[in-house]
Amino acid sequence: MSEAPDRDLVRLYLDGDRSAFTVLMERHERRVYNLAYRMLGRAEDAADASQETWLICLRKLSGFRGTSAFTTWLHRVAMNVCLDALRKRAREGPAADEELEPPPAPDTTEGSAAAVDVQRALLEVPEEFRAALILHDVQGVPYEEIADSLGAPLGTVKSRIHRGRVALARALGEHPRGSSPSNLQETT
């Protein structure tokens, strides 16, 4: 079952095979967590958002029509959970003890420091640009799937990615001329 395509696993789950959902979750949990971490900037918030994403998936999987890839639908659910968390955070104001943690990465002091710098810079990128940037540059999601996930036209997605890269480069103190930041690659 672990090699079955996502679409088949969804069908199996809806037909009563509860273990199919476990396979889906194990297959995609790291990706959901990494997306949430990069959107929210704190491990605890990312863990909460990941859990909320999977709970929503579990409740609403019967509504998955299969017109797009399961991962597209999952990204949309995760992104909505993250955006809700960011709106809630904005209403409540920042916590006094807010501290960024490095994203999950290999143990290297320089790598961890660079990862924290990139994460801090990512949080300075406006949310709408950050979402598209993370999906594309970190998680390698194709433009068309991002457009489906975010409910935005393809041209808008490309523009958001470009603007996100420019904003990220500025936040990192780099010149945004044509290159994409290299410290964004997802760790698995």
Number of domains: 1
Query: So, the CATH homologous superfamily?
Result: RNA polymerase sigma factor, region 2, helix turn helix motif
In DSSP terms, counting alpha (H) and pi (I) runs of 4 or more, how many helices? Answer: 8
Largest sheet: none
* Helix fraction by DSSP (H/I, runs of at least 4): 55-70%
In N-to-C order, the SSE pattern is HHHHHHHH
CATH topology: Rna Polymerase Sigma Factor, Chain: A
> What is the first-to-last residue Cα distance?
21 Å
Rg, Å, rounded: 17 Å
- Computed structural class: mainly alpha
What's the average pLDDT?
A: 84
Strand residue content: under 5%
Report the strand count.
0
Unreliable residue stretches: 105-109, 178-183
Can you tell me the overall shape?
A: globular
CATH class: Mainly Alpha
What is the CATH-assigned architecture?
Orthogonal Bundle
Structure description:
This protein has a single domain, classed as RNA polymerase sigma factor, region 2, helix turn helix motif (Rna Polymerase Sigma Factor, Chain: A, Orthogonal Bundle), CATH 1.10.1740.10. It is built from 8 helices and no strands. The protein is mainly α. Helix 4 packs across helix 7.
